[in-house]
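Morning F.,

Quick status update on the modeling queue. The single chain you submitted on Monday has been processed. Sequence for confirmation:
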Amino acid sequence: MRLVFIHGAGCTGEIWDAQRRSFPESIAPSLPGPGKPGSPDTIEAFADAIERELENHEVGEAVLCGNSMGGAVALQIALRQNPRVRGIVLLDSGAKLRVAPEIFDALEDDFPAAAQMLAGYFFAHPTPERTEAAVAMLAVVGQAQTIRDFHACDAFDASGRLANIGVPTLAICGEKDVMTPPKFAQFIADRVPGAKARILADTGHLAMVENPAETNAALRAFVTMIDSD
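Structure tokens below.
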């Protein structure tokens, strides 16, 4: 069984570097966007792209782990009952991902300033190194695709379909996540059959970057649990 990591809005697969080192058989594709055909703006289209990745990499059995927008993609694929998917992990994500109008205004008006603002939201402790790396990643994705990513999030709402998720589900959230706070993870745990929530202390929205040790430990325990069933 392989872990498949799905990044969030304004990010690329490189955001999962700490997980790729810990799980060498995993894959962490960058979703279509700048320089690639498609430039999707819906969660459904991103889910199509990940399902193609599963085929291209000949993934027999997968646990999908998605951060933020990537969690919505994982939910969408699970709702399709893709037979390759054995479980999903929603990392700092939610069943409904509304975006504040102020974020769209900032992205449209002054993208460099908006990137700095978002980088500050990503972490409980936004050190200069973390902020610089996040801003650089947003610059790679670019203004147009980042806006499309956030529109995809804003339109997504699976809150009324969670009871239809038929695979083991773990919702992990940083205690200090200001973008998708812990109540989002608990909402999923309360409505997906058998789902669990795990809150990571003193951690923000990019838990896999800010708290890789606890994130990876939770992932390993979840995959082990599925393997043992």
